[in-house]
Structures are given as C-alpha cells and as structure tokens.
Amino acid sequence: MDLNAFCAKLDEALDVPPGTVRPDQALDQLEGWDSVAVLAFIAMADTEYGVSVPAKDIPECRTINDLANLILRQKA
Amino acid sequence: MINPLTLENRTILVTGASSGIGRATARLLSQLGATIVAVGRNANRLQETTDSLEGSGHHAMVFDLADLDAIPGWIAKVVEQGGPLDGLVHSAGIGSLAPLRVLGMAEVEQVMRVNYFSAVALTKEFARKRIHRQTASIVLISSVAGVVGAAGRTAYSASKGALAAFARSAALELASAGLRVNCIAPAYVRTEMYEATRGSLTDEQLNALVAAQPLGLGEPLDVAYAVAFLLAGTGRWITGAVLPVDGGYTAQ
Question: Which of B38, B108, B123, B182 yields a CA-CA distance of 20 to 30 A from A57?
C-alpha cells in the first residue's frame, strides 16, 4: 500500500488541507477525528481498497499507520 | 373459524426474496396460501427461499432490478407464465453508510436505482390492466431512515423517503383502478443488511442503536406479518399509508 496515497485519501475523507495527515500522526491529536470521520474512513476503505474494516477494531488504533495496517490486515 | 389473513388463490411477486425481509415475507405469504413469484439476483439463495415455501406452484425468477429498462418486458413474461398478479412486495434494496465527504455520486445513483427507481418501474407495470387482477395491493419496504435522519445515511434515507412519498401519490392515482399502495417503515431488523451495518459500527454505537428501539431488535418475520396484513383483505381500507414496524423507534 502506498502510504502517501493513503494519507492523501484520508485528507479528503476528513476534509482537512492536503498534507495534514501523516503516517506517524497520533489520532487523538488529529483535527476532525470524530465519529463521522470514523464512518468516512470505513466507507473510504471499502470504496478505495475494497475491504470492510470492522469498526470495533478502530478504537485500538493509535496512529494513522495503525489505520493503514487495519486495511492491510483485511486485505491479507 | 375464519382466517382474515388468508391469501389463497393469490399470486404475489416478492422482490429481494433471496434474503432478509423479502425471504421471510415470501415464506409467510406462502403459509397463508399465496402462490409466490420470488425475485432475486442470486440463483442459489433464491432457490433456498423457494425450497422453504409452503405449497406448490411457486416460481423463482433471477433478475437484477437495477436493469430498469428490462423491467416492462420481464414483468410481461412473469404474467405470461404465472398469470396476473394480486400483489407486489418490493423488498429489494441496498444499504449505504457514507458521510457526504466520501459519498460518491455513483453510489447515490446506484442506491436510488435499486431502492427507489426499481419500485417506480415495477409499480408502473403492475398498474397495467392485464398485469394485475381486479383488486390488488402493493407494499413497498421503506425504512425508518426515510422518516428520521441519521448521519452517514443521506443516500439511503433519501431513497427510502422517496418510496414513502411515491406510495402516497401512487395510492391516490391508482385507487379508482382498485389498487392499494402502502409502505412499511422498519427499524433495525436482524437481516444480512443489518449484519453488514453491524461491522461498520462500534459495540457502543450498536448498543445505542438497539437501545433506541424500545422493543429491541426486530426479526424479519415481524415485518412479514405487517406485509401480510396490508396485502390481505384485512388491509382493504388502507392505502397511501406508511406503517412504522419499528419496535417503537419513531414513537420517541
């Protein structure tokens, strides 16, 4: 998975300026990371990567990297 | 003893019959004596439905309702094979859970096509004189999402609300022809669609959803009972209604 492309897609899904989302970023420091953002992430994972990310796994994620790994795990 | 819910000698077309509410409805209507024309996209799952029906003479029709232009010719063929219809239950539908900022227009169009446009095309054909019998009834499966809103549900809500609005006007337009048109608005029911939604929600969100339904999570049969009531003689003075079958969800 191209992490930069993933971050760019999250920029759009979270409606933040391009370049805002970075792989090592902590989710609790990320502006706009709320319940609608979680839905947006799940929908984005489905349309862009073709995977159903279980919402129950998201609270365990600490960083953007963890979110990417969640998608990779579903793809495996 | 009488059975006011009898559907003997009635032929009823049920869309979305390969799963969930459509499947439970087809099954119940057959138990009430109806002959079922079961419609779905998946041949194997549709076969499972028809195998579970009571009585004989039922038909399974594999058809994709998203192919709107093919609906008129297809309905004509259905009637050619099985005779005129007494009822139509439109339970086919797809879900959509996507906030506006990631909602693609292709998804909006697909949701409207499968959930709503197909109902228009089906009703339009059903209303033709040679397609339906003297007194016939249409039940469209809408949703509480068409009555109240929910974040991430814009496309789905709009398609289900469109069904309800359509049913009211169609009811008025078709009353003189002996046709009744009604909607049912279920809340969360234990179906394949609910299972798919479940994955997109945290346990906390899920518990909140079910807690918002005073009578708990519904079963497909709970909705099927309401469909039968509207289709049978019991519903003869009801048209243009949107009946909540939602465990009390919209009472609040």
Answer: B108
Which pLDDT score, from 0 to 100, does residue B106 have?
Answer: 96
Fold of B11-244: Rossmann fold (3.40.50)
Mean pLDDT throughout B172-192?
Answer: 96
Q: What is the pLDDT of residues B121-147, one digit of tens each?
A: 999 999 999 999 989 999 999 999 999
pLDDT score, position B194? 85
Query: Do B101 and A42 count as a contact with CB atoms less than 8 A apart?
Result: no
Q: What is the ipTM of this complex?
A: 0.84
* Residue extents of the structural domains in chain B: 11-244
Model-level pTM? 0.94
Identify the residue whose tokens are 């949701």. B111
Q: Residue B70 to residues A68, B11, B74, B76: CA-CA distances in angstroms?
A: 42, 21, 6, 10
Q: Which residue of B has its CA nearest to A48?
A: B102
SS3 B14: strand
pLDDT digits (tens, 9 = 90+) for B49-94: 999 999 999 999 999 999 999 999 999 999 999 999 999 999 999 9
Q: Which residues of A touch B (CB under 8 A)?
A: 12-15, 35-40, 42-44, 47, 52, 54-56, 58-59
> Helix or strand or coil: residue B112?
helix
**Alpha helices per DSSP H over B88-246:** 105-111, 118-126, 154-174, 192-199, 203-211, 220-231
Interface check B199 vs A, CB under 8 A: yes
Domains of chain A, earliest start first = 3-75 (1.10.1200.10)
